[in-house]
Structures are given as structure tokens and as C-alpha cells.
Amino acid sequence: MSELPNCPKCQSEYTYEDRGLLICPECAHEWTAEEAAKAEEASIIRDANGNELNDGDSVTVIKDLKVKGSSLVVKVGTKVKNIRLVDGDHDIDCKIDGIGAMKLKSEFVKKS
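That's the Protein YjdM sequence above. Prediction below.
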């Protein structure tokens, strides 16, 4: 079976290739292979040093972070275990000891 990517618009797995274009028969979306490669590269989440992050990794905070709506601060050097990657502006979902569940931006952490 071919290894064509799912449709970026509707996530259909029934895509096919026609003269250099990838086409989705369900929503009629058309895109090129280069666009698909760029979208896949953009979806990779990287830390402040450029290392790729994955679910379950441990990271270290590299900057004091104020917790919005609270007087708490996540200090530099705080280790966060077992992260979960999510879509959005704050792309790391985690639990920090003493603070609780939080969302972090990947640009403020480094892989441990």
C-alpha cells in the first residue's frame, strides 16, 4: 500500500496522487507533496535548543515563569516528567509538583 499522507483538511486516509498533486476524494482538497512535507515539519515540536520533543519526555524549565492568575512562579531548573504534547500556543501539557496541571510553551524548556 502507498504511504500517502492523510488529507490536511479532513484527515481522510483515502488520498491519491494525480500528476504531482495529492487529492482527497472526500472533500476535494488538493495540495502538493512539498506542502505536505512542510506541514509535517511544522508539526514537530522542538525545545529551546532545537531538540525534538515526544510524549513522555522529561524537560527542564529554562526561565522563571509566572503562573497566570496566581502569585506562584515556576523556577528555573524545575524538572517536569512525563510531558504530553498538544496542539495550540502552549504545546506541552504537564503536571508540576507543588503547582499542579499546567500548559507550557516548548520555547521555555529543554529536554532532560
